[in-house]
From TrEMBL:
The keyword Oxidoreductase applies. GO terms for molecular function: dioxygenase activity. It comes from the Bacteria. This is Glyoxalase/Bleomycin resistance protein/Dioxygenase superfamily protein. InterPro entries: Glyas_Bleomycin-R_OHBP_Dase, Glyas_Fos-R_dOase_dom, VOC_core. Residues 1-127 form the VOC domain. Keywords: Dioxygenase, Oxidoreductase. PANTHER family: GLYOXALASE/BLEOMYCIN RESISTANCE PROTEIN/DIOXYGENASE, GLYOXALASE_BLEOMYCIN RESISTANCE PROTEIN_DIOXYGENASE. Pfam families: Glyoxalase (PF00903).
Length: 127
């Protein structure tokens, strides 16, 4: 069994698509109209046949409440792996990304947390 798709609730699909592609560097794989919203799937530029990240509209009240509460508690909505967290941290800082946690060593890992501007905290990790 493989993980092929994972979703992330976002407040605004257009804003999220711009942030995740232009700022973070993901690649748009699908952008399909689905009524009022779209099926937007992104992939890593290094693994374009890998797991897809769906930018899911948080239109449902339960989704809005979930997103609001985990963010308020400082809980990241998901985690992205990076080869060199300090390079990524500096690159994202230069692009105006706001961090809630600078790169911090935790055992054999180093993590950092940033705001995706779409209602989520995202954790980066270097193993």
């Amino acid at each position: 069994m493989n993980i092929i798709v994972t979703s992330l609730f976002v407040q605004d699909q257009d804003k999220a698509l711009e942030f995740y592609t232009e700022t973070l560097g993901f690649v748009k794989k699908h952008d399909v109209p689905m009524g009022k919203f779209r099926w937007i799937a992104l992939v890593s530029p290094d693994a374009q046949e890998g797991t897809e990240l769906i930018l899911e509209p948080n239109e449902h009240p339960a989704a809005k409440e979930y997103q609001k509460r985990i963010s308020a508690e400082g809980i990241p909505a998901t985690m992205f792996g990076v080869a060199d967290i300090h390079i990524e941290y500096n690159r994202l800082l230069e692009n105006g990304v706001k961090f809630t946690m600078k790169p911090t060593k935790m055992g054999e890992f180093t993590i950092a947390v940033f705001d995706d501007t779409c209602g989520n905290l995202i954790q980066m990790i270097q193993k």
